[in-house]
Amino acid sequence: MNAALATRAPVLEAFASIQGEGRYVGQPQVFLRLRGCPLRCAWCDTPASWTWRGDETARVAAPSGTRREPALVDVATAAAWIDELDPSRTRPLSLTGGEPLLWTDFLLALKPLLGERRLHLESAGAHPAALERVRDACDHLSLDLKLPRDLNEPVELEGLAVEETPRTEDEWTAARRAVLRLAAGRDAALKLVVAGGRADVDFQPLIDDARELAPDLRLVVQPATPIGGVTAPDQGLLDAVVDRAARAGLDVRLLPQLHRLLGLA
Ligand code: SF4
Fold it and tell me: What is the pTM (predicted TM-score) of this model?
């Protein structure tokens, strides 16, 4: 980590909306979407979050009107934005990205400023050392199980690597298993995105790892939103993946991206 950044992080956008995915789907939340992600998921719906050059601005969708602010903020500024978006301080904060695990110092410094507000982390689950560092500061962990076939070559952000992003299937397996061990028994959920043209059998190693290492966690199967050449899965594929998870004894749910269905941010 670049020491000059310390407890600052670059923000893509801050807004209040409804959680569209995972265990808390439908819940009113405040979202702080950080910039920077070394992954390149084929079905990524937020590619604008991937990079950070240093001169971007953040979209702050405040009740008084949407404005642009310098993207790189300290935790005090981020906390002020969050309270501006939800003065009642009742909505959980969804810290999302991008990959928020690039910004562990920021997360740890932000947590005490949130008071009673819950902190929900949404992560790709590719960086177990970073997750271990912040796990106890998070009230909920939403972690992806990534199908290696869905991943293009990672692109590390210069000076920001907290740990190497997995590249090979073996590295992905090791990261997935480490992350599952860290999340087991916690307020956490797993997300499995299913794109069209995949084979249901390809998901079995991910399901097997969840069954072995974190059988208490809900598994949310999420149809990929068609984007960038990725197609939506057909019903047969979704049924087959859900059936594999159910037969493994997992608490499985099939959920679309609710916010997309409703046309929300
Ligand atoms: S981890 Fe998230 S932000 Fe990064 S490429 Fe994948 S879907 Fe996009």
Answer: 0.95
